[in-house]
Design brief:
The protein is mostly helical. The chain has helices at residues 15-33, 38-45, 49-52, 65-71, 79-100, 102-123, 135-148, 171-188, 198-215, 218-224; strands at 2-6, 153-160, 163-170. The protein starts with a strand and ends with a helix.
C-alpha cells in the first residue's frame, strides 16, 4: 500500500515541512557528490549505537555523538530511501504542522527523531554500523497524525491481484497497518546484523503518539471541534 495524498485541508502554510524536505534532498545531493568518500562520511555522521551508549570519548576525527544524533536524520542510503521518507513527510507532515504550529512541530519532529535513534540503539547496543535516515522522525509524524486525524482518509495505491488500484482508505487503517508491519519486521530481524532499523520506526511512532496531544495549538482545537 502506497499513500498518495490525504483529504485534510490546512490553515497554515507548512513552511517547516517544506524546509525539512528541502534539507533532506539537499543533503542527499551532497552525499551523491562525495563519490568514493561517501561511506567514510556516513560512518562519521551516522549514529553508531555502541558509540551513542558509551560514556567514553570518541576515537579519531569523529564528531561529537550529539551531532551524529541529528545529522543522521538528514542522511539517506539511496534514492528510494529518501524518496519514501519524503513522500510520507509530504503527505502527513503538513497536517501535523497545522495542528502544532511551526515551532512546536519542528521541536516535535526532532524529539521524535532522537527517540527513534535511542530505540534502535537500545535494541542493538553493540552495533558498530551507522544508522541513517529520516524514518524515525517521520514515524513520529505518522504517530501524531494517527492521534489527531484518525478519521481522515488517504488516497493510496493498493495491490489487488496483479494490478494496483487507487482507493480511499481510512488513515487509521493505513497507519495502523504500517506500524504493525514495522513491528513484525523488527521482531523477525532481531539478531540479524545490518538492514533496516525497524525499531527506530517503532520508537519514533510511539514517541509521536505519546507527545502530540499536549502540543496541539489551542486555536486548532477550537477549529477541529
Amino acid at each position: 500500500m502506497i499513500p498518495l495524498r490525504d483529504d485534510n485541508p490546512t490553515t497554515l502554510v507548512p513552511w517547516v515541512t517544506f524546509t525539512l524536505i528541502a534539507a533532506n534532498v539537499l543533503a542527499f545531493v551532497f552525499e551523491v557528490s562525495l563519490g568514493e568518500r561517501l561511506q567514510s562520511f556516513l560512518a562519521l555522521y551516522g549514529v553508531v549505537p555502541v558509540r551513542l551508549l558509551s560514556s567514553g570519548p570518541a576515537a579519531g576525527p569523529a564528531p561529537p555523538v550529539v551531532v551524529t544524533v541529528f545529522s543522521s536524520m538528514f542522511l539517506h542510503g539511496g534514492v528510494l530511501h529518501v524518496a519514501g521518507n519524503m513522500l510520507y513527510l509530504w503527505i502527513f507532515g503538513n497536517n501535523v504542522e497545522d495542528a502544532l504550529g511551526h515551532v512546536r512541530y519542528l521541536l516535535f519532529y526532532l524529539i521524535s527523531g532522537v527517540a527513534a535513534v535511542y530505540a534502535h540503539a537500545l535494541v542493538d547496543p553493540f552495533s558498530t554500523l551507522p544508522m541513517i535516515g529520516a524514518s524515525g522522525a517521520v514515524s513520529g509524524v505518522l504517530g501524531a497524525y494517527l492521534v489527531v486525524f484518525p478519521r481522515a482518509r488517504v488516497l493510496a495505491l493498493v495491490p489487488m491481484g496483479f494490478v494496483m488500484r487507487m482507493v480511499r482508505v481510512p488513515a487509521l487503517f493505513v497507519l495502523g497497518f504500517w506500524i504493525v508491519i514495522q513491528l513484525l519486521y523488527g521482531v523477525f530481524s532481531l539478531g540479524t546484523p545490518g538492514g533496516v532499523a525497524w525499531f527506530a520506526h517503532v520508537g519514533g511512532f510511539l514517541a509521536g503518539v505519546a507527545l502530540v496531544r499536549p502540543l496541539v495549538r489551542r486555536d486548532f482545537r477550537s477549529l477541529a471541534s
